[in-house]
Amino acid sequence: MVTSTRTGRRPGPGTARDDILNTARALFARDGFRGTTMRAVAEGAGVDPALVTHYFGSKQGLFDAVLELPFDPRTVFQTLVAAGTEELGERLVRFFLSTWTSDGTAGPLATLVRTVINEPTAARTLERLLVQDGLGPALASAGLDEPELRAAMIASQLVGMGLLRFVLRIEPLASCSDDLAVANFGPAIQRFVTAPLAAQGGME
Amino acid sequence: MVTSTRTGRRPGPGTARDDILNTARALFARDGFRGTTMRAVAEGAGVDPALVTHYFGSKQGLFDAVLELPFDPRTVFQTLVAAGTEELGERLVRFFLSTWTSDGTAGPLATLVRTVINEPTAARTLERLLVQDGLGPALASAGLDEPELRAAMIASQLVGMGLLRFVLRIEPLASCSDDLAVANFGPAIQRFVTAPLAAQGGME
């Protein structure tokens, strides 16, 4: 199971709230936002629908709760970057891989990517987590230019890798080892961290 | 509109068959495979449901037809690679960008990516198009080692870029120019074409 590093948000494992969240995560990933009902989540979690409303207010509230990642993007990326930018590419790939598989199946990021495809609100969450609150400020604090462009490019490669490896299971990426993925994608991400970029101003 | 380069598959623009395909493409992308009915496609296209069955047999047949790309992956990648592998990265990015935007919105690849997320059969189509029939053999013909691994890594970056830029519209990728995207992603793809790779055998 995923362990939250945020305090006060989850009352501990095995509670009805966790059961609701786990059921909702699976249903949102399978049926999308529109195809998922509060009633179906309650049934799947074996609780009264009123309890779902009590905890999360609305389907949107439930959805936002499901999209909470099991790490705080403001601190985790700062920590990764603070260890230096030289091998940051490899560390980012390894961290990303570990997050996808942290619950034994494909992890919360898989749910996020599966769900965001047709949900603009979820896409904004991804943008905020990966670019604006998370990696962008961390890269800026390391003194790198174009931190948000770099963060978005890094996110595009990490999300694409996760999508093909874990969600679509496209070979030979699906079955290669984590070490192999780190060895091959690490240098690609590293380029996006430190290589000179073409920026919008310079192209016009 | 998308123009097919395959002969004999589409009877020309403006026909009922095209209307059905365009409607189905929009509905599959919005509602997924499970959420789309033959009846809804017929209604959207303004035709009798029997005509949808006549042309495509089943929902699966209709889905397969929607996933036909407007280019033949066996020839287009061979052509791109035959021009030399030195600037192949830039050519691949530019081709990919043009394909996503070829119908004025986000193109057939956007539909494919939106739809494949929850459709294993569609993921196999993507695997075949991008890795097995398409780019993999083209890279092999250029004498590159690990052509399918290279093809899958290239696909992961192209799909991730397309997803963030066109589907999720994550900034600053969503609004940067094609030239800027080519300038920044081209060298990344080029690495996957020609840089030494770690291969599964060497990691174990």
Any overview of this molecule?
Two copies of one chain form a homodimer. Chain A has 204 residues and is an all-alpha fold. Chain A folds into two domains: 54 residues, Arc Repressor Mutant, subunit A (Orthogonal Bundle), CATH 1.10.10; 122 residues, Tetracycline Repressor, domain 2. Helices cover 67% and strands 0% of the residues of chain A. The first copy, chain A, has eleven helices and no strands. The longest helix of chain A is centred in the middle third of the chain and has 22 residues. Chain A is elongated. The N terminus of chain A is likely disordered. Chains A and B meet through helix 1, helix 7, helix 8, helix 9 and helix 10 of A and helix 1, helix 7, helix 8, helix 9 and helix 10 of B.
Chart the SSEs and their pairings.
The structure is a homodimer of 204-residue chains.
Chain A: H1 16-31, H2 38-45, H3 49-56, H4 59-66, H5 73-82, H6 88-100, H7 107-116, H8 120-141, H9 147-167, H10 178-194, H11 200-203
Helix pairs in contact in A: 1-2, 1-4, 1-7, 2-3, 3-4, 5-8, 6-10, 7-9, 8-9, 9-10
Primary descriptors:
homodimer; Tetracycline Repressor, domain 2; 204 residues; disordered N terminus; mainly alpha; 2 domains
